[in-house]
Write a structure and sequence with these properties.
The complex is a heterodimer of chains A (272) and B (164). In chain A, 36% of the residues lie in helices and 24% in strands. Chain A has eight helices and eight strands, in the order H-H-H-E-H-E-E-H-E-H-E-H-H-E-E-E. Chain A starts with a helix and ends with a strand. Chain B has a five-stranded mixed beta barrel. Chain B is built from four helices and six strands; from the N terminus they run E-H-E-H-E-H-E-H-E-E. The radius of gyration of chain B is 15 Å and the shape is globular. With 164 residues, chain B is an alpha/beta fold. Chain B has a single domain, classed as Fe-S hydro-lyase, tartrate dehydratase beta-type, catalytic domain (fumarase), CATH 3.20.130. Chain B has helices at 23-34, 77-82, 96-105, 117-121, and strands spanning 11-20, 47-49, 87-90, 108-111, 124-131, 140-154. Classes of the chains: A alpha/beta (272), B alpha/beta (164). Chains A and B meet through helix 3 of A and helix 4 of B. Chain B: One of its GO terms (molecular function) is hydro-lyase activity. Chain B: This is Hydro-lyase, Fe-S type, tartrate/fumarate subfamily, beta subunit. Chain B: Residues 3-164 form the Fe-S hydro-lyase tartrate dehydratase beta-type catalytic domain.
Chain lengths: 272, 164
Amino acid sequence: MINKHVISEKIKKAIIDANIKINPEVEEIIERYEGPFSDIIKENYRVSKEEKLPLCQDTGIVEFFVFIGHEVKLEEPIEETLNRAVGEVYSEYPFRYSIVTDPLFERINTGTNTPAIVHIFQVKGKSLEIRFLVKGGGSENLTVLRMMTPTSDVEKVKEFVVEHIKEHGAKACPPLHVGIGIGGTADKALLLSKLALTKSFEERNKDPKYAELEKELEEELNFLGIGFQGLGKGITVYSVHIEHFPTHIATLPVAVSVDCYLCRRGKVTFED
Amino acid sequence: MRIEDLKAGQEIRYSGKLIVMRDQAQRRLKEIVDRGEEPPVDLRGQIVFYAGPAKTPSGKPVGAIGPTTSARMDDYLEMLFKLGAIATIGKGKRSKKAIEACKKWKRVYFVTPSGTAAALSKRVKKSRVLAFEDLGPEAIYEIEVEDFPLIVAIDSNGNTIFKE
């Protein structure tokens, strides 16, 4: 049995770190950037760390991806542990409560930044892995799904992704991390695109054809010249990750998700 | 400096007052204006900053604060100009409609660095809620800033720094 307090403490620390400390992969790239606002971008993560202030005022909706071994036993549903952890972190720290109760009618703030979004996947074994994204609204609004015709080729898929980022990329705080889900059903493709965002920049798809496509898209998207803050200097994307899955003969779902330049994410693991 | 003299791409540092408001506050403001009632804030001569701050830590004038996506609020831009606002501050590219509104009303749109809310909060000296307190981070605030970094993204002639 994995103790709920052990899970909670580790998750809380990871969420605090993701909001306050710059992602080391991101820092390395930002340090080399010398375009407009570079002084403030660099000053920001020094101030946030020293003063325990969030890197961005939009401290996001927390989205969890839970991989739970089939032999793992928990004290309570994992969703309860995770929501409690989020509620505690966002109350204890000067973060923003960004979640409203009802999406359409009464958009009243829940005052806890919960509920979080929790996706659960059961896997083999005795370990529990929890990945998460601290997802800002600006980048989330760029999410898009297209049900392409099943005979569409690689070029058509690339065109869709490039056109989308060209039109909207400047709104989501570039450089962006681009996650692409191809295949499955509509909802599966969206989920895959989000999972792709939990990867580190250097990882590549294990299938060489998809790995090649990731690299080609990265090059084409950087050729757009959107740049840091959309101001034309520096790279446009850090990395492109694709996750794929078998699909129906009549479908080719393609989903695109992006993460903003801060790429606030984390991963914690436990053994039962 | 006159608003009409600013050119797209120009970098400035601004010190003075800003009116902070975003999506829901503007929606409510529009409902009030449409009913022919008096708006709860006077926007004449003011600069509107599209933002919703994080919680204020004790002893600080304001919490982490930074721009949100301006394009979401393009439909409310003309209303702000009609109410007398002279400029807006946010992040990202805006629609053709917003560019046209800036040109027609001789107003400008600035960008300020996004995702740098800890650093920007150091440039805010004072903050107070002006209206719609129940909206929490989406309330209307008045803040006083010092050396706030801005780039003119759309100038009063409709020139823009963003690629078409």
